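User: hey, got a sec? need Deoxyribokinase folded
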Amino acid sequence: DVLVIGSNMIDLITYIDRMPIEGETVEAPDFQMGFGGKGANQAVAAARLGSKVSFITMVGNDTFGQQQLANFKENQIDTTGVGTGTKSSGAAPIFVEPSSDNRILIIKGANNELTPAVLDQHVDLIKNAKIIVLQQEIPLETNYHAIDLANQFNVPVLLNPAPANKDLDINHVSNVNFFSPNETELATLTGMPTTNLTEIKQAAQHMVQMGVNNMIITLGSKGVLWVNKDTSDLIPAVKVKAVDTTGAGDSFIGSFAHYFAQGEAIPTALKHANQYAAITVTRQGTQKSYPTAAELASLVK
Ligand code: ADP
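Assistant: Yep! Here you go:
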């Protein structure tokens, strides 16, 4: 049983020849809508692997909200924790240039209405989880409260501090079981350099000294670094030809939560999450690129 507490967004992916200047209207060649938001992506990855996943999130009272709900259900995610806010659904207009450079706007909308009080309505979900997965596209206070409740019921927490937020109070979150930034987020969190593996290890060890049980640092095509008080292990990525790495981090986090909830030891779960994320980078799209357990079995021999 995996419980994800976090965000959902509708990606509005607009393929442009160029950005219009002020006052100008230009035609763009293509458009695509996609289901996103870090919380939703992670929940979908774990659910496609076969975990029983619950998701505490807020959608808007609009058609995007209805579509999100339908997408959660289609992915067999338990939606008792999905609420409807008064703001619009979270949305991300993304502009992609022919060079594949992109510009992204994030409107958090109803995601900002996921307040600490909402969690108090779902204490049963928190109590019964094998792992609780958090990111940073909802108010920080809600994550703090989630960690306090999880500690009260002895449920392990994985905090993926993405996107990086300088306001995160490390003292408040330092006792989580798993802290999983990428190298850039680790630099923001610690204020330490992370330009090579030696520096990354030092920054991770600093977080372990602060009280984090396990640091899991994703390193893109290099794989993942696992650091705790006894360990400092690099688990290499699977070698693949990457075509689209959007949502790779979320597929890694969601699949790791699945494997951990299945009772796998940490190094085994990390190896399996590397395999899962590697497949997602060989395919276009975000949630679209996340394989089911059956597909995975046919792809990994
Ligand atoms: P984020 O998108 O959060 O920056 P990363 O780029 O670190 O996340 O990628 C997350 C995980 O996805 C990596 O730890 C690795 O397992 C996998 N991954 C990402 N890029 C590649 C790649 N080019 N080849 C193989 N695996 C990859």
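Quick note: The radius of gyration is 19 Å. Let me know if you need anything else on Deoxyribokinase.
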